[in-house]
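Reviewers of the previous submission asked for a worked example of the structure-prediction workflow described in the proposal, so we include one complete record here. The input consisted solely of the amino acid sequence. No template or homolog information was supplied to the procedure at any stage.
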Amino acid sequence: MYHAAVLTVSDRVSRGERPDEGGPLVAELLKNAGYEVVRTAVVPDEQAQIEAALRQMADGGDIQLLVTTGGTGFAPRDVTPEATLAVCDRLTPGIPEAMRYASSRAMLSRAQAGIRKGTLILNLPGSPKAAKENLEAVLPTIGHGLEMLSGRPADCAKLTD
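From that input alone, the workflow returned the following structure tokens.
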């Protein structure tokens, strides 16, 4: 079983002005897919704080999948993709490409995905509906990627559509 973390990026949620709907939904989807969600957090739309949270979660060594929700759009304060790019060692462009392909409005998302040490970091939109659509588009294959990332033998021939 892989360990996951969910980071909600939202000024209003971080100030307590609205409830976090995206983070708990993403955590539930991950749990239903067999992940153990060991950490959740909320940060405002501040690049330095997002980067610090991503580093802290990824560098602990016990989280294999770190999913963010929020801050991927066109608004001036939407800086989650920039924070993700700043902390990742390697990018995984196929993941956000697949998400954009699967969801009609996802073309407006600037989501990124990449690897920091042994953790896959994946950005999702803040809208619960969009986050669900995007995560469901890639979740069936993410486990195989985590298997390869872990260094364990991964049999790519066993993958089926």
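Helices lie at 11-14, 22-32, 47-59, 80-87, 94-102, 128-150. We consider this example representative of the routine output the project will generate in years two and three.
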